């Protein structure tokens, strides 16, 4: 069934002043054209014009669609926010100074731009997911310069594709998911929609990378920009996505037991330097994660965690090494900005419970703040030991800087 057979149109039409005398234009049936093609017909109520001031006409009429293709072409142009004009024509009767006569009328009507400004996605929450897609809910706000109310057969959910931006700021053509609006209604001014469904999909390798980058930036608390595209050319650019408040990781603790000594991946026992060749030691910081990643009744499992930890400026320090009782080396270390890489892996939970030695993921429980260990190791291109020279003889010493301790 054609949902566009008729539409209820409400609004205000502004009419300029008459040139010489006042007149009353009686109600008539107007033909509506867009780009020269007849779209349909509507009733225009009676109104008066005056040489003294412009007039406003309140419209509340039924628009009868006669050419569906022409109407959808017009709707596409309007929904894209492009400048649009309709041509209204008809043969109303006009009464002026007691005389009534027939008038052939043709008028171009400027339509207000259908523009959505200041669009924001915020308060994202994970709901469910699998290996290929992740379901979230989000709140959306935007400002509309136009009121739009769609009812009857034409009222339906509006699904918009979600596109990210490349490094050079251009739109990535392959969508990484979609967001579902319950309808396409707009109120003039601020609009807020709560609990909209946002689904991110790994439809291809490139989409999987886009989803991964998006989630990584979001969990880091960074704001991002997306573009939404939908049917009939609907495009909403510059959609700001608020990052996870404060970032997922709240703090990290360096401790003697977990970070410096470490535990054996199999038994969970603290490592002993005297058994270095017999133990697989895992060392790293204890991380504290915020509680609002998942809803109160949801669980989120994070696997294949891989994070590089860097400093904002080079790590440099001086130290004194006593290699032998009679030999003292004063050293200077410049280890760069790279500190270490932390990863999820089997054995990360064995320090808590040896029976969990095979687990290599973190499960976030809604409403709970959690702590967990992520084992660390040098980043692939990180120099082991950094640059380490003695101040006295300028000779290079192996394993004298921080990476001999972490990890």
What topology emerges from the helices and strands here?
Blueprint: E1 6-15, E2 23-25, E3 28-34, E4 37-44, E5 47-49, E6 55-65, H1 68-79, E7 84-90, E8 93-96, E9 99-102, E10 105-111, E11 116-129, E12 133-144, E13 158-164, E14 177-181, E15 189-201, H2 205-219, E16 224-229, E17 235-241, E18 249-253, H3 256-261, E19 263-264, E20 281-282, E21 286-289, E22 299-302, E23 306-310, E24 316-324, E25 327-334, E26 338-343, E27 362-365, E28 370-373, E29 376-377, E30 387-390
Parallel strand pairs: 11-17
Antiparallel strand pairs: 1-6, 2-5, 2-8, 3-4, 3-7, 4-6, 7-10, 8-9, 11-12, 12-15, 13-14, 13-16, 14-15, 16-17, 18-21, 19-20, 21-28, 22-27, 23-26, 24-25, 25-30, 26-29
Structural class category = mainly beta
Terminus-to-terminus distance: 68 Å
With strands numbered from the N-terminus, the spatial order across the biggest sheet is 11-12-15-14-13-16-17
Rounded Rg: 34 Å
Residue stretches low in confidence (pLDDT < 50, at least 5 long) are: none
Helix content: under 10%
The overall average pLDDT, rounded, is 81
In terms of DSSP E residues, the strand content is: over 45%
Number of DSSP-assigned strands:
30
Major sheet size, sense and barrel closure = 7 strands, mixed, barrel
Identify the overall geometry.
Answer: elongated
Number of helices: 3
């Amino acid at each position: 069934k054609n949902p566009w057979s008729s539409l209820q149109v409400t609004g205000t039409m502004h009419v300029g002043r008459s040139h010489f005398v006042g007149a009353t234009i009686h109600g008539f049936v107007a033909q509506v054209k867009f780009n020269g093609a007849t779209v349909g017909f509507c009733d225009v109520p009676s109104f008066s014009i005056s040489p003294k001031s412009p007039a406003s006409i309140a419209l509340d009429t039924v628009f009868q669609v006669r050419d569906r293709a022409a109407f959808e072409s017009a709707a596409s142009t309007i929904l894209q926010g492009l400048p649009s004009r309709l041509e209204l024509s008809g043969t109303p009767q006009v009464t002026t100074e007691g005389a009534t006569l027939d008038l052939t009328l043709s008028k171009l009507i400027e339509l207000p731009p259908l523009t959505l400004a200041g669009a924001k996605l915020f308060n994202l929450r994970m709901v469910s997911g699998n290996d290929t897609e992740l379901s979230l809910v989000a709140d959306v706000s935007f400002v509309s310069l136009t009121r739009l109310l769609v009812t009857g057969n034409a009222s339906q959910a509006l699904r918009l594709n979600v596109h990210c931006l490349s490094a050079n700021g251009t739109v990535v053509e392959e969508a990484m998911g979609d967001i579902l609006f319950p309808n396409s209604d707009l109120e003039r001014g601020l609009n807020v929609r709560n609990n909209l469904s946002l689904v991110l999909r790994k439809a291809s390798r490139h989409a999987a990378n886009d989803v991964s980058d998006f989630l990584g930036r979001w969990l880091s608390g960074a704001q991002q920009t997306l573009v939404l595209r939908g049917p009939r050319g609907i495009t909403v650019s510059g959609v700001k996505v608020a990052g996870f408040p404060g970032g997922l990781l709240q703090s990290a603790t360096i401790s003697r037991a977990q970070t410096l000594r470490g535990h054996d991946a199999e038994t969970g026992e603290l490592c002993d330097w005297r058994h270095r060749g017999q133990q697989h030691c895992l060392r790293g910081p204890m991380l504290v994660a915020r509680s609002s990643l998942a809803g109160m009744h949801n669980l989120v499992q994070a696997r294949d965690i891989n994070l590089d930890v860097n400093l904002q400026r080079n790590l440099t320090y001086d130290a004194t090494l006593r290699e032998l009782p009679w030999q003292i080396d004063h050293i200077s270390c410049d280890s760069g900005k790279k500190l270490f890489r932390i990863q999820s892996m089997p054995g990360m939970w064995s320090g808590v419970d040896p029976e969990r030695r095979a687990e290599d993921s973190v499960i976030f429980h809604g409403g709970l703040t959690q702590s967990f260990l992520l084992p660390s190791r040098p980043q692939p291109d990180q120099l082991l030991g950094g640059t380490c020279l003695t101040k006295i003889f300028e000779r290079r010493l192996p394993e004298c800087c921080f990476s001999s301790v972490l990890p």
